[in-house]
Automatic annotation (TrEMBL):
Gene Ontology terms, MF aspect: isomerase activity
The protein's name in its UniProt record: Sugar phosphate isomerase/epimerase
InterPro entries to which the protein is assigned, alphabetical: IolE/XylAMocC-like, Xyl_isomerase-like_sf, Xyl_isomerase-like_TIM-brl
Keyword terms: Isomerase
Length: 284
C-alpha cells in the first residue's frame, strides 16, 4: 500500500506546537505522514515538529512556494539569487522536519504573470536555479517534486508535458515531479496520459478534489486517476491537499473565499476513500 499523507494547510500554514493535537488525531485515523508548508520563519518550530512527528511514528513531507521577489525565472540575476537562497532556506526547514520530499510550484513565482506564454529561456533559468538548489538538497537527502499548476496560478508549468521539460532542464537526480489531481482536472486531457508522461520522474502525488474539499465528493475522475497510478506502478505518497478559511491570511493569498468541507471530514473520509480506491485499482 502506498503511504497516505495529509497536508495540514487544511488548518493552517503555520508550523507550531498548536498542531500537536491535530498530528495525534491524524495518526489515530491511520495516516502514515503529515505534510507542512514551509513558510514559518522559526527553525526551532520545525525541529520540535520533526521530533514530535517522529516520536508519534509519522513521516513528514513539505511544500513550498515562492513570491515575486524570489522568482527563479526573473530577468534579474539578483532576484534569481534570492530564489536560490529561499529554496535553500526551505531545505533547511524540511531537513529539520525530517522530510525527504519538498513539493510545490517553486520553479517560478506563484501567481506572477507577464502577459505571454512561457519562453524556452525561462525553463533554462528555472533549471539553473533548481540544479544549484538540488545540489544543496542532496546533502540532506531531499528530493524536489515540482508541481504543474492551473493556468490561473502559473504560466510556466500547467501540464505534465511542460513539467517534464522543466525537470529535464534542471538535469539533476534530486529534481523530479509531482502530480496534483486538482490542477490536472483543469489542464489535462487525460489523467492516464499525463501520468504516463510523468512516470519516469514522478516522486509525489496530491489527492485533491476539484473544489478542494473532501476527495470523492466532487467531479474528479478518480477511477481514471487511480487506474493511471496503478498502471505506472506508482510507489510514492498519496497526500491529501485541501484548503479552508481556518487561516485567513493564507486563504486570502490563494483565493479561498468559502469553506469547502470541514477539515476533519476531509481527513477521515479522505483516508478511507484513498484506501478503497487503491484496493479497487490494485495500487500499492
Amino acid at each position: 500500500m502506498n503511504k497516505i499523507g495529509f497536508n495540514v494547510l487544511a488548518w493552517t500554514a503555520a508550523v507550531s506546537d498548536d498542531l500537536f493535537p491535530v498530528i495525534d488525531r491524524l495518526k489515530t485515523i491511520g495516516y502514515d505522514g503529515v505534510e507542512f508548508y514551509l513558510g514559518a520563519p522559526d527553525l526551532s518550530a520545525y525541529q520540535r515538529m520533526g521530533k514530535y512527528t517522529s516520536d508519534a511514528g509519522l513521516e513528514t513531507t513539505a511544500v513550498m512556494t515562492l513570491g515575486a521577489d524570489e522568482n527563479p525565472i526573473s530577468d534579474s540575476s539578483e532576484v534569481r539569487a534570492k530564489a536560490l537562497d529561499k529554496i535553500k532556506w526551505g531545505v533547511d526547514r524540511a531537513h529539520a522536519l525530517n522530510a525527504k520530499v519538498i513539493c510545490g510550484p517553486f520553479h517560478s513565482a506563484h501567481t506572477v504573470f507577464v502577459n505571454r506564454p512561457a519562453e524556452e529561456r525561462e525553463y533554462a533559468l528555472a533549471g539553473e536555479v533548481l540544479n544549484a538548489a538540488a545540489e544543496y538538497a542532496k546533502e540532506a537527502n531531499i528530493v524536489f517534486a515540482l508541481e504543474a499548476l492551473n493556468r490561473f496560478e502559473c504560466y510556466l508549468c500547467n501540464t505534465a508535458e511542460q513539467l517534464t521539460k522543466l525537470v529535464k532542464a534542471a538535469d539533476h537526480p534530486n529534481v523530479r515531479a509531482m502530480f496534483d489531481t486538482h490542477h490536472a482536472n483543469i489542464e489535462e486531457k487525460s489523467y492516464g496520459t499525463a501520468l504516463e508522461t510523468l512516470s519516469p520522474v514522478l516522486a509525489h502525488v496530491h489527492i485533491s478534489e476539484n473544489d478542494r474539499g473532501t476527495p470523492g465528493d466532487g467531479q474528479v475522475l478518480w477511477d481514471s486517476a487511480f487506474s493511471g497510478l496503478a498502471k505506472i506502478n506508482y510507489q510514492g505518497w498519496l497526500t491529501i491537499e485541501a484548503f479552508s478559511r481556518n487561516d485567513p491570511d493564507f486563504a486570502n493569498a490563494i483565493g479561498v473565499w468559502r469553506e469547502f468541507s470541514d477539515p476533519w471530514d476531509i481527513a477521515e473520509k479522505g483516508y478511507n476513500f484513498i484506501r478503497e480506491m487503491s484496493l479497487k485499482h490494485g495500487l500499492g
